[in-house]
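Summary for the steering committee. The consortium agreed at its last meeting that each partner would contribute one worked example illustrating the joint modelling workflow. Our contribution is presented below. We chose a case with several input lines so that the handling of multiple components could be demonstrated. No manual editing was applied between input and output; the record is shown as generated.
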Amino acid sequence: MSAAMNRALPLLAAPVAFFIAFFAVPMIVVVSSSLMAGGVPSLGNYARVLLDQYHWDVLAATFRIAGLTTVACALLGYPLAYYLVRVVKSAALRRTCVILLVLPLFTSNIVRSFGWMVLLGRNGLVNDALVGVGILDRPMRFLGTELGIVIGLVYILLPFIVLAVGNALAAVDPALEDASSDLGATPFDTFRTVTFPLCLPGLMSGIVMVFTLAVSAYVTPALLSGGKITVFPMLIFQQYSTVFDVNYGGALSMTLLVMTLVLVGLAGWIGNAGATGRKAQ
Amino acid sequence: MPAMPMPATAKPDALLSIRSVDKHFGTYHALRDVSLDVAHGEFVALLGPSGCGKTTLLRCIAGFLSPDSGTIRIGGEDVTRLPPHRRPLNTVFQHYALFPHLSILDNVAYGPRRHGVPRGEALERAREALELVGLDSAAGRHPRELSGGQQQRVALARAFVNRPKLLLLDEPLSALDLKLRKRMQIELKHLQEKLGIAFVFVTHDQEEAMSMANRIVVMNRGVIEQVGDGRAIYTRPASRFVADFIGEANLLPGTAEGDAGVRLAVGSALLPHLGADTRQRYTAVLRPEHVELLKEPEAPGLITDQGFVEDVIDTGGQTVVTVRVGEHLLASRRLGMAGEGLNPGAPVFVGFHPGHVHIIAEPATHRSGP
Amino acid sequence: MTRTRAATRTVSRFAALSAVLAAGVSLYALPAAAQGEIRVAWYGGNWGEAFRTCVAEPFTKATGVRVVPEIGTSTVTFAKLQQQKDAPTLDVAYMDGGISEMAQAAGVLDAIDPTGVPNLAKALPEAIYKADGSIFAAGSGYYSLGLTYNTKEIKTPPTSWNDLWKPEFADTVTIPSPANSSGVPFVMFLNRMWGNPPGDLSKTFEKLKTLKTALYFDSSGAASNAYQSGEAIIGAHFNVGAWDLADKGLPIGFVVPKEGVWATDARLHLVKNAPHKADAQRFIDTALTPEASACLAEKLYLGPAVQGVSVSSDVERKLPWGVGGSVKNLKLFNWADINRDRAAITDAWNRELARQ
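What follows is the complete predicted structure of the assembly.
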């Protein structure tokens, strides 16, 4: 061990302590409480969660909403990131756009969701506009629908994917795109075979971020569902905040965590398999 | 205004024909009225200091930049407004620009695939191209696993696998170390001859240009200063800039005496110069290796003058002695240890053959030169 | 060897630095505590503001003891009390009915002694909560969940909870979800109102399923927002929130229907092993004065839980029991019953109502 390393160890202690205090300990608390029922160790809470079709239905709804949110974020966020990085030439304008994009993140999630409640309401701006333009005959219901929740989540999570993809796009050497076009690729082919694959890791990290945040979101679904759709975090919150069954709540939390990890891992595995399978386009 | 007049219309056999191309970047005038022809199978070097416009010209030819005015024709077809992917040429990029997510074989097969060649055939062609650069064994690897020289060869294979008539190379050897660069220069030259493809090769290294190119295009501040083979450019530079940029040169002022000739500031010799004009300034170019150091004040057939040793630099293989003659400095390069007994301040005689003096008429607007 | 020693020295230097920092922190903290202050947990927003103006400021004026508020919902406060069980820093805690009983059961509350809090004598008998013969909480003011409606859309004020099922109100109704503290009691309230057996809520859920709601609100803010935006034009809301909207000039009315209203209260609690017990008792005593109650009634329309409070007629009609009512008109449930059925009702609600 070098002297420098010896000096570094105490410095390392701080982040390690931070990690233990803020990540490991709460996790251990949740896990251990989930394994207790009626004061004795038990797997009963998990049986109660997993053997009940209701929970699987809620889980499916949660993943469906998170999946739609992720797809919408990717479809909206990718072109937006492309526009900001590649089309906007003025650095000042680009900086302004990024600030505008990130600014909502500095306001409370609750405030933003309330804002959407007003916008998406029966007499809200969105319905007024759709009816006014003649797309709808009468106001459409957004609140209390999965669509409403997805709209609210997309708004909140879009910046994550734009920033992730934007960074990846900015890191793609323009010479590679020149080379592609020099070798006879049309702009679309260049995008498909060079630009897109090269910023795929950025897109994937954005997708994982958005998906996990959407799966674990509470405030937005709670407000925009109007209490008519239940997502898993709402079940968890109920147990911790009003029913005070931390054992059952812990089991619900762990179930959501494991299911999300499995899904994200599966997506990564499929993504990798896809990447290895892609040759000489 | 180009120093060398160009024909107003393209030569019928020219592969690449550039006419009066102008390009601005904002207020910066990157290319000024550039015209150039490149014949089939020719190896042309675009040579000049950084910022001279050589890369801008290359990018205009490739289609990555669009000229403000002027035309670019390839094989008779006007490609000035065509996007890069529709131009019948390929480019080797300065930092190779290999696709990091594709294998070496897929990198090389990329071009044929884009031109609709079936996958199997594209891979076959790629393999052949890699064989030609001696890298068929690396086909399955990824660019980051190769050395700089290997990447360079892959970039080359990728560029010529499409069998273009014209290959553009943007300082392709600049990222290699000196030894490897020398070897690649020879390889590149042989490859060019074997493939019969015309090369337009951008470089700032005059030795590289001299050793490889059939013709050298010297550029400065967006203007073509001179086009010619290495020898012509060295012995008969068209401008002070070319004389100074290519090799080393003693640049001596000269004055016209009627139409009889130009009188040199050193040696007071009158050199015959056709069309000498008293209203014009003249510069005499004298290469250091043509300046001899004499013990005697006179030598047959030489123009001589007296001066004092200013400086002696002995590098083992050769010696450069700088002599002050009046207000002018004259460098003399001799082989071997020629500096013995020549200490700064010592009187010495210099002499040179009048046939080695090349006289340049300075343009009215002093644009080129230091 | 040298290296190890160097490392040890570095570590001990690190430790010494931490010790100095810690000492600095405690030096800073100690005199502040000695100066005479108590820590009181109360709610955020206008509730906290009202407690400050009506109770804390008169208390500080009278005693010179500073009040340091710790803002949080009842649930958060309860969680804090459980964490601090061994060495509490809080002295007094405001918590709602329901959580109050849980805190008592968790053993984090001290008995409120009438000799230390003489104003307990003035409190309404309903507002004194006892367990095992000792007082664990004192009511600080009632609030109710009544019928709230948009006066512009609905010209004839509704008179019954059953009016919510009228076809003309389809898709514009809001009632609390179990995520709200009133959600579970409201279901029990309806169950009793319809005369269904206390242990069997199935008929009540059947009926609730036929209610065409715009939304179920999980927070008072969400309810206010729904009435304000016109998303809901009739439904349940707290008198506190409904009148707050009306006071802002919105066309919102609040009525106590003929079946009555479910109500609960914000309560004062003395924390067990409170660091400043004497001052804490004086704080509770101040909170139980008619002046403090009148002040809270004016600011939050909390129904006074002490006798002899007089308020203006405008405030009086906005109190939880409505015009001419009293605490007798409120349906105050036994929270022990509610807490016992909470998990089952929440679960049934999730399955029956909270899915499309």
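The radius of gyration of chain A is 23 Å. The interface with chain B takes residues 173, 175-176, 178-187, 189-190, 193-194, 197-198, 279-281 of chain A (CB under 8 Å).
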